[in-house]
Amino acid sequence: MSELPFDEPKPPGDDEKPHYLGHRERLREKLFRQGDALPDYELLELVLTLAHSRKDMKPHAKALLRRFGGFAEVIGADPALLLQEKDIGPVAIGALKIVQTAAVRLLRGRLKERSVLGSWDALLDYCFGVMAHEKNEQFRILFLDHKQKLIADEVQHHGTINHTPVYPREVVRRALELGAAAIIIVHNHPSGDPTPSSGDKDMTRQVRDAAKAVGITLHDHLVVGRDGIVSFKNRGLL
Predict the structure, then answer these.
(1) pTM for the complete prediction?
(2) For residues 63-78, b (16+ Cβ closer than 10 Å) or e, as one string?
(3) Between β-strands 182-188 and 217-225, what pairing exists: parallel, antiparallel or unpaired?
(4) Can you list the alpha helix ranges (DSSP code H) found in the chain?
(5) pLDDT (tens digit, 9 = 90+) per residue, 141-153?
(6) What is the largest CA-CA distance in the chain?
(7) What is the pLDDT of residues 198-223, one digit of tens each?
(8) Distance (Å, rounded) from C-alpha 149 to C-alpha 119?
(9) Residue 217 CB neighbour total at 10 angstroms
(10) Which of 120, 238, 137, 115 lies closest to 186, judged by CA?
(11) Residue 22, Cβ density class (10 Å: 0-12 exposed, 13-18 middle, ≥19 buried)
């Protein structure tokens, strides 16, 4: 019995190599030369070849992009939805999730040992990369020291598609445990629209007041959606 995760054909002889092998070699060379200039379907095709070394994956890459909308949306898609696609099994999904995790690590690395407030664009990129495509609401806290450097980045709560329970006392307790001087709270809207709700505004006031009572500053509340990020501070809501 084959140890491969899918029933793939045996490699052809030199005289019957399939057309896509030459294409794949040219695609890799193009990646080395142009990198980020590759269109989404070609980059995704290369990722999928890690799982299917003996199949033409261009049609599958294009099908995924048609369904989910873009490269970021594909690698961030729910595994259960990805499994519905032809020839997209656990190994292919694993390859996609490795890429997603690596991208998040790179974005997070831009925040290390730097003032978060002085690296605001990097912070927004990180929050969007890690939360914009989550299917359920997620409440994250960034804990900062007196120099505004990141002490910890923690997800405090997971919720449903439209609600995450937040308890200001828990937020403050954790900030005190870590010795944080300030915090930034972040949560996502799975609907894609980052417009703050009335509940978001009420919760922000409660967290701000609870933190202020013990000398901790709430710098901002960021709401992340596929359509962008809303800053409470920029909107005059904080």
Answers:
(1) 0.73
(2) ebbeebeebbbbbbbe
(3) parallel
(4) 19-34, 40-49, 58-68, 71-75, 79-82, 90-109, 120-131, 168-178, 198-212
(5) 999 999 999 999 9
(6) 76
(7) 999 999 999 999 999 999 999 999 99
(8) 10
(9) 16
(10) 137
(11) exposed
